[in-house]
Design a protein that fits this description.
- The chain is of the alpha+beta class.
- The chain has 3 domains: 83 residues, no CATH class; 48 residues; 97 residues, Chitinase A, domain 3 (Roll), CATH 3.10.50.
- 58% of the residues lie in helices and 14% in strands.
- A hairpin with a 2-residue loop joins β1 and β2.
- α6 packs antiparallel against α7.
- The longest helix is centred in the last third of the chain and has 35 residues.
- It is extended and about 80 Å long.
- It starts with a helix and ends with a helix.
């Protein structure tokens, strides 16, 4: 973590130095969102930061925090200029090293994107799970459920029970999507018991081990009606179901392939160097 912070600080410092030399920090055509002395934060730079926000309030918060941090960086740089004497040779070496690392990182990223085998078969997942099974012990209980949360009114509750008892499951699905405050009806998926308790507070007085598998529970609290069926559960220190770990395993497999690919590339380059001797 410390290394990452130091690296980020170095890059920011080098960028500030480069901007000062080349004038890239000056806005010519765009209005300044923020200013510090002669420095300008452009609208396009700020937009590139806030574009990832999902909600307007998040975007506004990101913008406020970024502007504050940008001004702080400008002020710190000004303070540093006035109080620190930098050896130009050391600075040039630092810039050269950062540039070198940037090129290497960009090349490795491009190489991985072009050569990584991203196809993962179900057999790959099963083999990985079996080989590393000890790493997939649960740290908390998980459950497989059928869960519906509706507004606590007789009309919707009766309609749900009618459709649930009927044969037209498409109507039931449409009703759930339209009327439910939340629901979890996927047969093969698992969720953490603690997350379910947060969603359905009436469960806080229960332990998952004390609820028989297949048991149906209904609850009304004046605001919501809850329908819950515990289909299966696994408790802490049991092995996690492979379906619960599937996406995690995919990421692990891809990461191993990525590291292997990079190591092979480095070894090939080293071999070329040795052959030239």
């Amino acid at each position: 973590m410390k290394l990452s912070i130091i690296s980020a600080s170095i890059i920011v410092f080098v960028c500030l130095m480069s901007c000062k030399e080349t004038g890239l920090n000056k806005s010519t055509k765009e209005d300044c969102i923020a200013k510090f002395n002669r420095e300008c934060l452009s609208a396009s730079e700020l937009a590139s930061i806030t574009s990832s926000a999902l909600f307007k309030k998040d975007s506004a918060l990101l913008a406020t925090n970024y502007i504050r941090e940008w001004k702080l960086q400008q002020a710190l740089y000004k303070e540093a200029e006035n109080n620190v004497v930098i050896d130009e040779q050391d600075l040039n070496q630092l810039i050269a090293n950062v540039k070198k690392q940037y090129y290497i990182s960009a090349y490795l990223k491009k190489y991985v994107q072009e050569n990584l085998d991203t196809q993962i078969l179900n057999k790959d997942i099963v083999d990985y799970y079996q080989l590393h099974k000890s790493a997939f012990k649960l740290t908390s209980s998980i459950v497989q459920i059928y869960y519906i949360k509706l507004s606590d009114n007789e009309k919707d509750i009766n309609e749900f029970k009618k459709l649930f008892a009927g044969k037209d499951k498409s109507k039931l699905t449409n009703f759930i999507i339209e009327k439910s405050s939340s629901y979890f009806v996927e047969d093969s998926l698992w969720i953490k018991w603690d997350d379910l308790v947060k969603e359905a507070p009436f469960l806080k007085n229960y332990s998952v081990q004390n609820i028989p598998k297949g048991k149906t529970m209904e609850w009304r609290d004046g605001n919501y009606y809850y329908y819950l069926k515990i289909k299966d559960y696994k408790v802490k220190d049991e092995y996690s179901p492979i379906l619960y770990e599937k996406e995690k395993i995919k990421k692990m497999i891809l990461n191993e392939r990525k590291n292997q690919l990079i190591n092979e590339l480095k070894n090939n380059i080293l071999q070329k160097i040795e052959n030239k001797k």
